[in-house]
């Protein structure tokens, strides 16, 4: 039995990871300040004596004897990370320093949840890990993008300077049950709007693309990455390479929910990436043939069922 710390464990992805690692017979500490996460995401785990919740802000140091750390604490939706940009960058940078400091002190292996946002509005398509990105350092997305880039730098430097065992994954747009219905991300927005019969808000002309990964596929990749060969540090892309326009996504959600909602267009936010698709050849090679199994239609169906029960 391993002792595993998950920062941001009460969030969307973190709650699925807590459940998976508990089911595999591990002891899990879920650390969260509940900025975007919620106790309700992990409530069914509370009966398990090997599960522990800690209310803590990762910008302050934390100490626990653990074998592995998954560092997920950080708001992920543009609406939430732009709400208090200084806090967002502090969470990424000071959170990384505190997590790496803990890993160094107790000899734990630590995995950083980085993001496809490190590629910015990419000029190379699809994006391989070798691409250094096209990021505005002073725009409205910079607190998140540059915070995550700096965290990657810190992870590499703690490895090189202090020999900390690190892993870096770059997560592409992920969706599924436990997304916060008001966090403003496109999949949750469209589903909630469709179920309520409200207008579906497409930003811009809707021709911008994203590649959507169902959360179970991501969690499988995260666990495989943590258990991968110690010499493989990443960064490695984890995402579903099937790319859709936001218009296609809206039409799919309307069809799956049988909604009468109509599509309206709103202004495109500043620095909104025009396209995004992961090159997952490295993940396939290094993570025992990992690739996403759940396609958009099936994953949307499961997510719609979740939001129906919530609303
Ligand atoms: P989320 O907002 O649901 O989860 C983040 C969690 O971190 C929340 O529970 C929140 O309360 C917690 N948190 C925020 N600031 C904190 C702080 N200072 N101290 C302690 N806890 C704090 O988002 P998510 O989608 O689950 O994302 C999890 C991680 O994966 C994030 O680091 C995010 O950047 C990364 N990621 C997610 C996606 C995606 O599409 N879901 C894509 C790329 C990267
Ligand atoms: N988007 C949209 N309508 C919404 C929310 C988002 O058209 O109600 C668009 C947004 O402009 C972006 C894409 O959907 O082009 C994905 O947005 P999201 O916030 O989910 O993630 P990110 O931009 O970080 O990939």
Structure, explained:
The structure is a single chain. Helix 4 links the parallel strand 5 (109-115) and strand 6 (166-171). The strands form four sheets. The protein has a seven-stranded parallel sheet, with helices on both faces. It has a domain at 3-175 and 214-239 and 279-293: NAD(P)-binding Rossmann-like Domain (Rossmann fold), CATH 3.40.50. The chain has nine helices and 13 strands. The model has no long low-confidence stretch (mean pLDDT 97). With 311 residues, the chain is of the alpha/beta class. The longest helix is centred in the first third of the chain and has 22 residues, at 85-106. It is 37% helix and 17% strand. Nicotinamide-adenine-dinucleotide binds at residues 7-8, 10-14, 32-37, 57-59, 72-76, 91, 113, 115, 171, 173-174, 180. It is found in: Golgi apparatus, Golgi stack membrane. Its main location: Golgi. It comes from Lutibacter holmesii. Its cofactor is NAD(+). Pathway: Nucleotide-sugar biosynthesis; UDP-alpha-D-xylose biosynthesis; UDP-alpha-D-xylose from UDP-alpha-D-glucuronate: step 1/1.
Sequence-ordered SSE layout with sheet pairings:
Layout: E1 3-7, H1 12-23, E2 27-32, E3 51-55, E4 68-71, H2 78-81, H3 85-106, E5 109-115, H4 142-162, E6 166-171, E7 174-175, H5 186-196, E8 200-203, E9 209-211, E10 213-214, H6 215-226, E11 236-238, E12 243-245, H7 246-257, E13 263-266, H8 281-286, H9 296-310
Parallel strand pairs: 1-2, 1-4, 2-3, 4-5, 5-6, 6-11, 7-10, 8-13
Antiparallel strand pairs: 9-12
Helix pairs in contact: 1-6, 3-4, 5-7, 5-9, 7-9
Uridine-5'-diphosphate binds next to helix 5 and strand 8.
Organism: Lutibacter holmesii
Membrane topology: Single-pass type II membrane protein
InterPro entries: NAD(P)-bd_dom (IPR016040), NAD(P)-bd_dom_sf (IPR036291), UXS-like (IPR044516)
